[in-house]
Known about the structure:
The chain is α/β, with parallel strands linked by helices.
Amino acid sequence: MAGFTWARRGEGTFMYRIVREMERPDPEIVRGYREVSTGNICDAMGRYGAMSASIRPILERCQIVGPALTVKIYPADNLMLHKATQIAQAGDVIVVDAGGYADMAILGELLCLVCQTKGIEGIVLDGGVRDIEGIRAIGFPVYAKGIVPVGPLKDSPGSINLPIQCGGVCVLPGDLIVGDMDGVVVVPRARLVEVLEKARAIVKKEEQLRERIRRGELIYDLLGLGRLLEREDVIEQ
């Protein structure tokens, strides 16, 4: 678990704490995000908000959209993840800060079945997962950093519904998590309306571009990319 730092009680600002309540976004806004892709959302946020490319979907096809219920755990220990399944509501996405340690699985089929039965939207973790065939068989959406057969410990506390980092992105409780086959994006709760409007505009623009591309036009010409080369004094022979 090299590189992971855990502040013991009294050694820093981190304290073991469980916050049961969080503010969830308007369900209508959440539904709106199902109409746009993670790529559209990233473009709308100026290429920010995407988790690391190491956070990959376990299912062959999936989409998740829901508010983040955040969990910080000690690497390889899923005690607080079990507690989070007790607190999470239908539609929530459980997001786990495991310190990036993926050589022991903190999630498996049975815990996924618990989440699925409760109506939890999905789980995102920067740690390891196992029981892949079982998870795929029940069809529960999981995004994880690695796949490994070694199971977890259940010895150490952590926190629930405090700010965390997952996949290189800061996640606050109630932020919107959107995942598809390209990866996972975090939309800050305060920007949900703004980003959705921009993402929808991008979708509309792309639809117009598709029609022109089908007529034989090039993106190079449609976006005026030649001007960029001229600006850099590129010589074409």
